[in-house]
Design brief:
alpha/beta, Rossmann fold, 14 helices, 2 domains, five-stranded parallel β-sheet, eight-stranded mixed β-sheet, binds cytidine-5'-triphosphate
Amino acid sequence: MASLAEKRIVLGITGGIAAYKSAELVRRLIDQGAVVQVVMTEAAKAFIAPLTLQALSGRPVRDSLLDPSAESGMGHIEIARWADQIIVAPASADFIARLEAGMASDLLTTVCLATSAPIALAPAMNQGMWNKPVTQRNIDRLAADGVELLGPASGAQACGDVGPGRMLEPGQIMDHLTSSGGVRVLDGTKVTITAGPTWEPLDPVRALSNHSSGKMGYAVATAAAAAGATVTLVSGPTALTPPAGIQYRPVQSAEEMLAAVEKGIEDCDVFIGVAAVADYRPAQTAASKIKKDAESVMLELIRNPDILARVAQSPKRPFTVGFAAETDQAIANARNKLKRKGLDLIAVNQVNETNNPFGSEENHLVLISKTDEIDLGRHSKSALAEHLILEIAHRYHEQHSA
Ligand code: CTP
């Protein structure tokens, strides 16, 4: 999969001689699979033709806040919600000052003010302008607000000066975007994931369980952390090493899993139930090992709590995603489950001769929401997890800026 596959990028272009490099940046973003919406300021149009950028991005360039025909398509707030990442390259001194002041004086500043997506700036200006205390103050304040600074580089400038203020090359901007997890679509969110099987103890040495390996849940936790989320992984017993940089809560039974999930649920933005929770547990757990004295044994089982449904019904419910493993009528059954449990999204594993996800490195997932259905196809669990996280991020951000 290309490293920016289906990531939605708003590329802001402001007035400066470096604007000609933005055409190359659009081409490289598209090559990596990104969907690029160019937003230009008035001044940028003096340096590069919108038609060039439209041809390269395959989408009409947006340049006006007050254009009724463009706004009736994707309005400025929709652009702000749509974006996974905003990059402004080149970012002029004037634009940086307006952004720092929280102005919404044109389409680009308005989109930046309204969005919850991360913003990165590639400044480009004369070295005197860059070195001015006011510009440095603006940059420091924006950085403190979480805006990311890419460059500038130092060297010979178009005006003949030498010093800091050259825009980074498109290749350097791309390296930044595609390294360390690329676009951090879940930056600033808290995500709780359940994974693995549960063990329902019969006695101190035996338990009822299932064949879940935990691989899918651990891959989802890894992808969520790479997307910038603070991840809590509540895991039943598995043979896997917990991913680095996450909070790991090992549990055994469904009741322990529920208690661990409920602990942080008030403060959670997204919940993803990947665990294969045992539906029933022994009514009694023997205090000592059950001896094989009897010829036959009757086990009474009682229903476990449905962790996913509890989360979906909690008062401050997070964006709630479930998994379903289905052998027959997969889509219809999953649609039913989505409704019954009150979920935002359900990922369906089709269990048949060509796809048995248990223990496998690969899986085939179909995502179902109230309004749509997307077949993610058959891929490695890590590729599917990345795609799933992207879909969750889009829907979560749409719901939360609505
Ligand atoms: N789940 C849960 N707690 C349970 C049971 C299931 O949180 N006690 C979650 C799983 O993590 C998964 C989804 O619910 O996200 C699966 O739902 P479930 O109704 O158990 O699906 P199936 O096992 O496919 O259901 P059924 O046996 O009814 O087909």
